[in-house]
TrEMBL record:
InterPro entries associated with the record: CheY-like_superfamily (IPR011006), CusR-like (IPR006291), OmpR/PhoB-type_DNA-bd (IPR001867), Sig_transdc_resp-reg_receiver (IPR001789), WalR-like (IPR039420), WH-like_DNA-bd_sf (IPR036388)
Tree of life domain: Bacteria
Keyword Methyltransferase among record annotations: no
Domain OmpR/PhoB-type residue range list: 123-221
Keywords from the named record: DNA-binding, Phosphoprotein, Transcription, Transcription regulation, Two-component regulatory system
Keyword NADP: no
NCBIfam families in UniProt: cztR_silR_copR (TIGR01387)
PANTHER family according to UniProt: REGULATOR OF RPOS, TRANSCRIPTIONAL REGULATORY PROTEIN CUSR-RELATED
Record domain Response regulatory: where: 2-115
UniProt-recorded name of the protein: Heavy metal response regulator transcription factor
Pfam families (alphabetical): Response_reg, Trans_reg_C
């Protein structure tokens, strides 16, 4: 598998290149956004690992330009850890978003998950039952009625609607939506789910966001 690594920090770049090479990947490493975009457009890669903060041309610009011509899978690997940054990366067309510092084993797992999906990228528009989520326009509707969500609520729904029928634990949700380890004394996930449920389910006959006691939550049409 041929991977393009776009990372300007020498220590991080060298660490990633060595680790990925030892894991069986062929890695091209460049240290600027301009060089990264040129390589991504002129050579064939199975996947691009992209930092956000790059000299000359940042990662947002690189991905925006790349998506005009190429569907190469892209994983953002960056210290930018705000929910708004992760949502922006996904909206621009990234296939995944991993925050530094990270465990190398998790990076490998995410890379392999993306590569198993094949060459096509996940659609920007996801539908389930009568809910439609447009990741590019950040627009959600149910039965044609617009639902206004905060950035965290949008990220939470995006995670749930892509995995319908799958029970997601509080720790899974916390790690992917808030990028934090779940503390059993913290009810941040429960509060966010409650607010999302009020917007998505209240006023509609069919309820989609369910609590699975002792396990977590599931997005599922049970009619």
């Amino acid at each position: 598998m041929h991977i393009l690594l776009i990372e300007d920090e020498p220590k991080s770049g060298d660490y990633l290149r060595r680790g990925l090479t030892e894991s069986g990947f062929v890695v091209d490493w460049v240290q600027s956004g301009v060089d990264g975009l040129h390589n991504a457009r002129t050579q064939e890669y199975q996947l691009v690992i992209l930092d956000v903060m790059l000299p000359g041309m940042d990662g947002w610009e690189v991905l925006r330009a790349l998506r005009r011509t190429h569907d190469t899978p892209v994983l953002f690997l960056t210290a930018r850890d705000e929910v708004e940054d992760r949502v922006k990366g996904l909206e621009l067309g990234a296939d995944d978003y991993l925050v530094k510092p990270f465990a190398f084993t998790e990076l490998l797992a995410r890379l392999r998950t993306i590569l198993r999906r094949g060459p096509g990228r996940e659609s920007d528009v996801v539908t389930y039952a009568d809910v439609r989520l447009d990741a590019v326009r950040r627009k959600v509707t149910r039965a044609g009625q617009r639902i206004d969500l905060t950035a965290r609520e949008f990220a939470l729904l995006h995670m749930l609607i892509r995995r319908p029928g799958e029970v997601l634990s509080r720790s899974q949700i916390a790690s992917q939506v808030w990028d934090m380890n779940f503390d059993s004394d913290t009810n941040v996930v429960d509060v966010a789910v409650r607010r999302l449920r009020a917007k998505i389910d209240d006023g509609f006959e069919a309820k989609l966001l369910h609590t699975v006691w002792g396990m977590g939550y599931v997005f599922e049409d049970r009619r």
